[in-house]
Design a protein that fits this description.
The protein is built from five helices and five strands; from the N terminus they run αβααβαβαββ. The strands form two sheets. It has a three-stranded antiparallel sheet. It has a two-stranded antiparallel ribbon with strand order 4-5. By secondary structure, it is of the alpha+beta class. The longest helix has 23 residues.
Length: about 140
């Protein structure tokens, strides 16, 4: 990833979460879902040491994920399954999917009030469903 593209990604994180914080300050409950193109921690990709100098696992990207969590947003999958190794993306190259050499880069973050209200029932990564380089990820709520 070029420096320009990395700056764009990090600026998007900043601007989006500034907006999300404004919504939280208005009392809104938030669910933020998407492909962040960043594996947050070593558990979130197959080969962390080999990838620490590549986009998607750069320290600066992971620091942004830390900021999101430190600002109170909860990674729902990791909240429910702190030690579970599952991936949501695999490169099409090198037979990565068949060998389960993947990355967890798709997330559901929620504002802390959703956790406090007990609305989260489950979070899942359905890596048995193929057809894309990503697999479905989901969140089950009971409100």
């Amino acid at each position: 990833m070029s420096e320009e593209r990395l700056a764009y990604k990090l600026n998007f994180y900043r601007d989006f979460f500034d907006y999300a914080d404004d919504c939280r300050n208005l009392g809104k409950s938030l669910i933020i879902a998407g492909d962040f193109n960043t594996a947050h921690n070593e558990i979130d990709l197959k080969n962390p040491k080999a990838n620490e100098n590549y986009s998607g696992f750069l320290r600066i990207e992971r620091d942004w994920m830390d900021r999101i969590v430190n600002n109170g947003y909860v990674d729902t999958f990791r909240y429910l399954y702190p030690d579970t190794v599952k991936y949501s993306w695999w490169t099409y190259r090198f037979g990565a999917r068949s060998r389960n050499i993947g990355w967890r880069i798709d997330y559901f973050f929620v504002s802390p009030d959703i956790i406090e209200k007990g609305w989260i029932q489950d979070a899942f990564i359905d890596n048995d469903i193929t057809g894309s380089d990503h697999c479905p990820v989901g969140l089950v709520l009971e409100i």
